[in-house]
# Entry
Amino acid sequence: MSEKNSIVIGFIDKIQKFTQNFEKISNYTPEIIALVLFPVLFFFFGYFHEPWYDEAQAWQIAKSASYHDILFYLPHYEGHPPLWHLILSIFAKNNFPYETTLLSVSFVFSYTATFFIILKSPFSRIIRVLLPYTYFLFYQNGIISRPYCMVMLAFCAIAIFYKKRHEKPITYSIALIFLALTHPYSFVISSFLALAWFLEAIKKKCFKFSKFYISCIILGICYVLIVSTIFPASDTIAANVKSENSIFIKILYTFFILPVDCFFSDVCDALEFHQFAFYELILNIPIGILIWGFIYFYSKNKDFILQTFLITYIPTALIITKYFSMQHIGVFAPYFIFIFWLIFQNKKETDNKNRKNNTINKLFTLFIAISLVTSLFWSIKSSVLDVFLRYYIGKEEAMFIKKYNLDKYNILVGWNYEHEYSTNLLGAGVLILPYFDKNIFYNFNDKDSKKQYAYSRLNTKKQIENEYKKWRNHGLPDVIVGDADYRAVYKDESNKQEYIVVYSNNDSVIKKGTVGRIRVLNILVEKELAKKLNLKEIEPRYIERCYDLRHLAKKITIKIMTAWEKSGKNK
# Structure
């Protein structure tokens, strides 16, 4: 045995010994500390977090959309089942405070899941008390308040009821429906979990006839209703995104790299928008295969792989090749935790299998240790960065507008004018309006206070021109907030007024312990009005993106590959 191997094995033995000693603590002190510490840290770091677009959009839908639109119209464009919006609507429509309520609702789901993980999961004690603090469960799915906070709780419920799924089919089916209502990808996983359960029950005939078929009917009706609700409209933006990656690369990612991204790698910025570097595929695919190997080896029976894991993961992995972004990993990290939960449900049998192959057991121990340390590091660093950096625009811009009473004037808010769907995506408006009682932007849904959210809908050129015409009817803007190509709207008239930058600030979108993107928002005021309000012209910031070493390596790799391909074509 080489010296390096002996060092690694010695390190693994120390980890196992520490875990065993931690397990022997006689009282519930570690569990109590973990349960008490979670809300303290959650609300401390959550206090500093600025809601980003998806958080604000959900709140604005809950606040100003009708229940008819929440249930039957908007899900076709938002891509989410309406449960999250319905829950938020209870508070938003009754004028509860915006940021505090969002964080509190997210906390309820996150903390309930934490409770079940710490007290009910079959993992070793050290994993149970640390798992709720990892990146996806604590920060990405908790502090950032989105429907993902419900996903882990739904998986916990299914895992707890899994053993008695045949004896108590109605209870199990309710847990499956809850999962289906949390996210479209969770819906796919839920429906195939139901299929695996149905096939297993029919094969083994291990069910109470009436309750089982009642459950199947309830599930079938619910799944049909959810599909009819969230099936994307033909003109929704997400269904029309052009990808920079081939279908082959996407399949490689979803089958072999996505599991690694859930635990300790950082490959996916957005599967649709950013081309992967070759080295990222080469380095991560073997680790992905190793994770699959662990799942196979530690399964309490090999039928489980076919009945539960493959039946749920394969179709989901194929579906997400259509549209997938980094935040969607927030569904799959809890999914893999759930899979390992099921695998280790029968602890005695698992322990016996572990003794049969000490090498694989040691590899798995090392994998868990690295995963926990990496994810905890991401969680800690992201939370700390969120304290010292401004996560997203919105609040400070709203305060600036209020300070100088700019909402009394004609305000034009920016849109994504680089794309054909431009006039529907007024992101700055969505982020600023939660801090006002009414719609202050004349080009945002015709200043309709009953629709203070953006439509994720593609526009034709004719529709864009019709929007421009409506905006022109309001006259030239006095104030311009964000990226607004107002010259394209007003054309020759735009020369009649001169604007100066009076406010410029940037956000810092944080992901996995790094600043993944920095963008700038400027506020411009008509020059004479600025003098009247005693606003001075400032130099705008010019920051487009923050590149860490990984982004730099990716950029260099892509340039080398592009140059190599061009040289091959020239030959």
About this structure: Confidence is low (pLDDT under 50) at residues 544-554. DSSP finds 25 helices and four strands in the chain. The longest helix spans residues 358-388. The two ends are 49 Å apart (CA to CA).
